[in-house]
Amino acid sequence: MRNFAYHRPDTIAAAIDAARAEGAQVLAGGTTMVDLMKIGVFEPDALIDITALSELEGFEVGSDRIRFGALARMAEVGDDTKLSDAAPVLTEALWKAASPQLRHAARLGGNILQQTRCPYFRDTAYSQCNKRNPGSGCAALDGGETNLHAILGGSDACVAMYPGDWAQALVAFDAEVKTQGPGGSRTIPFADLHVLPGDTPEIETILKRGELVTGISVPVIPALKASHYLKARDRESYAFASASAAVGVEMEGENVRDARIAIGGVASVPWRAREAEEFLKDGPLTEETAREAGRIAFADARPLKGSEYKIKLGADVVAGALMTAKSRTTGGE
Amino acid sequence: MAQTINTAVTRTDAPRKVTGTATYAADVIPSGMLHGALATSSIAVGTLTGIDTKRAEAEPGVIAVFTHENLPDFKTVKGFYAGGPGSASFWPMEGNEIKYAGQPIAYVVAETAAAARRGSQLIDATYEVSEANAHMDAEDSFVIGASGDSKGMVTTKGDVSKGLAEAAQTIDVEYTTPFQHHNPMEMFSATAEWNGDKLTVWMPSQSVRTLRGGIAAAYGLPETSVRVICPFVGGAFGSKAGITPYAMLTIAASKAVAAPVRLIVTRPQMFTVATFRPESIQKFRLGADATGKLTAFEHIEISQTSQFDVVTNPGTHITRAMYASPNIHTEQRVARSDTNTGGFMRAPNEMQTFFGLEQAMDELALKVGVDPVEMRRVNDTKRHPVEDVPFSSRSLMECYDAVSDSFGWDQRSPEVGSMTDGDWLVGFGCATATYPTNILASNARVRMQGSGSAYIELAAHDVGTGSYTIFAQIAAARLGLPVEACDVVMGEADLPVAPLSGGSTTAASAGSAVHDACLRIGRAVAMEVTAQSEGPLAGVDPKLITLDNGVLRGPDGKSQPLLEALASTAAGEQEAVGEFRHPALTDKLIRATFAGGYGTAGPVTPEFAMFAFGAEMVEVHVNRWTHEIRVPRLHGAFAAGTILNRKTAHSQLMGGMVWGIGSALHEVTEVDKPRARYLNTNIAEYLVPVNADVREVRVEMLDEKDDYVNPLGVKGIGELGIVGTAAAIANAVHHATGKRLRKLPIRMSDLV
Ligand SMILES: Cc1cc2nc3c(=O)[nH]c(=O)nc-3n(C[C@H](O)[C@H](O)[C@H](O)COP(=O)(O)OP(=O)(O)OC[C@H]3O[C@@H](n4cnc5c(N)ncnc54)[C@H](O)[C@@H]3O)c2cc1C
Ligand code: SF4
After folding, report:
1. What is the pTM of this model?
2. Which atom of ligand 2 is nearest to the CA of A157?
3. Range of the domain at B543
4. How far, in Å, is the centroid of ligand 1 from the Cα of A168?
5. Fewer Cβ within 10 Å of end Cβ, chain B: N or C?
6. What CATH code would you report for A222-327?
């Protein structure tokens, strides 16, 4: 690991000031940051540890919005029973992520900004990686192993997959991100936070240098109560998703009034499947329609060699998640 | 005195381990110690055209950077498959040749581990890159044996073509198994300290004597000048057996900087600087009559090897011993790849081959229309099918009967896809487990004191298996002492000869030497007390006295507790060196072991075939939405001679079965084909089962008596549990889904 300066400011203003410097990076729980520093992928000049900013801790389950501080821990949020009652998808997506140790260390702000697990990105022995080394090419597309890569949203420059779980729940339920930076505060729709790789995979979010995520909020809507996060993975715990779905439904009689579907483990950014949602609206939710919604969610998928199975797997996961969500609606079984 | 053998005794080293006072090799910090780090090649095959160490040397704290151009007095040893103690025959940093990805190219020494690691990231290397293929070229496979020819690597009995022609049903199938890496929890490390021409090495090892002998010979030192110490090992599984480049580099670097140096290999580097389980292809052609009885048995194994060694781990020698067949053909083939040399990984000959064999038996049973357990029963045999000697003991069907009962095999509805549980498809599968009983010479020294304690000393190892405890138990039982009064000292090359801890031999071979030492103590004490003028055994012919669980027994009911007898002797203390020399061990084999090698006899001797057996049954669930495969129940019944400690044996068998779940569903080292590099070199993405994957695992240990294998009647159990698990799971997946998966690991992606 390269030597670096370490600062732990105790006001947000001081943190922003320190974080705006060239070569500075923000440190929260460090489970992404320190990992990538150890393997030489990130080599910051300075780390700005924001964990002294206690005003960014905690979370609150309100009747109109659920608000999370950027420093709330994955574990405390994932284990909260009041939250799991109000919004099961928000606890399930955390609870099924990483391991207990990681969830205790990791914070929500860091969680949504976690890095891809593309093995070529993580191993500096590969010279080709446009994300790590812009303009160098992409080893994944150069005949490499692509099982861990995106089949939605990728570009000719980069097919890295966004690996996180919780972000799928946020994008499905119209979350907003609050930030403070050198230019002041702003509120960003969560769906706009991450950007597609296009020709510039090194640019991952719209955050500006020195801009801190201070909080995340989710509006309370009926579909949140009947929501579910289904994660398919080769082992029961401590594995990234091969495919996942964050869903919620609101029924009106036999018909769907509102449906929310986001898919994980398959796309370059947190991915909302709006066409699939539209397809379900005003119709019945049966195994058949659920499966069709799953297929629609993957209609535009561009599988790579070795990841073709993700299309069917992803569609089946969406369908399974929808059936569980339906069983959570009043009147659902 | 309580019977201490075949009881459940808690590990004697448990308190030390859980309180952190067990000193592992890398816990030792000699004064003035510096830290080493390896830099490794980014390419797989080619030439190192330039190596610039300036940036590394400029890093604060870095003391020296060694490359092939400037490392003085770097010694190498012959590779294991060339008859030496080394992990491979090709040695990096002797020149500028690169033969596998992740090959050491530089060794950085620094004041801190952090500076050394950083320094290793700052080595700038340039290469001329050649084409490389990490996968074996199976089209170009060949037969070669350990002795350099094909001797023993091909078996032919009868005529397989004829047997196939006569069969009511046949199968002709091929199974593949992938690269796997051991990933023991304890990282590879080496700490070296020179004191003039005396050298001490602390290093986690399965064979301290192999290390000492090899290092001493390489440096032209007498063995007495080299100490190798490793009292505890945090898992090895075959990965810590040979002398590796990282060890010899550390020794050379320490000499060059004239200070002790410790290297801890990083997790990604652990995938390339030592051995691994080679990938393999298992081809089976089987024929059976209408009752399931085999008419033909053909197994051809093609196993991966490097460009510079020929790895021959003859799995076909194990499969051919399983079932009776009038016509048998087996062939052991290897194929080259651009990787480091593979080697031993828990059940190195058995895990892969039984994934094939036991699925093939299932496939054939289905075709014939007999129950999979019956398929094994009709083909069970009391004689070795090829060597024409009886098994010293073989309780395979007893194992099947026991596990069928505990598991409820009769609840299985034979039809594929016929069982469900909510959203889950359910399948039951079974498979045979076996492990050869290997025999190695061993010594052990036991010192018994009249105060009621005993010291047991031998150069064996506790690689986490419980050897400290079972040796104490054996001595306690023989000498009539409490287990706590028996102190075991191991993990030092200076102690009496004991074999390499591999091939599930430690309990059987080294344990038998401990047993023998105790009997010798009994005889020596008997000599003395019978010569005394008074006492219960005074005047008795010492030849008529036997040691029976701590009591010296003579004729006419005369007896005296050993401890009491010892207390009455002149010294009040008795020491003896015990020996285990099985009749099947030739002088050549005994010498090989004494020289630090692996002088094993068995599993087939001129008189008997010696194998432990087991049967495993598994319930598999496959989710109809996520296609996830889960293992709610895994039961095994095993017969492996005397069980010395029912607790540690249970743990060994269970651990093997759990690893079997991993082999079946999780483990694989992924390869980047274009650049012949490994991709998932971390334990986040190299999947092994986590707690949540392991639900009900039941282990039953049957009583089995075998007087031939060794005086204790012990067969090895360290590797038995993993054998067959993957096939049982694959068979259950087929039963649940109708999909026959002839490759490992079996993943969701195979079932969508
Ligand atoms: C082995 C392993 C397995 C994992 N498995 C999963 C999994 O199954 N599912 C899953 O979802 N995740 C998984 N993760 C990822 C894990 O959830 C993230 O590493 C974690 O949530 C990051 O949070 P942190 O607080 O540690 O962030 P850090 O590592 O401190 O920071 C991460 C990034 O966010 C930036 N950052 C952090 N906070 C802020 C802020 N407030 N404002 C601006 N920038 C900020 C940092 O600069 C950095 O770039 C896994 C991680 C590991 C190491
Ligand atoms: S997919 Fe993206 S992150 Fe991975 S190697 Fe290609 S450019 Fe780099």
Report:
1. 0.97
2. 7
3. 440-594
4. 15
5. N
6. 3.30.390.50
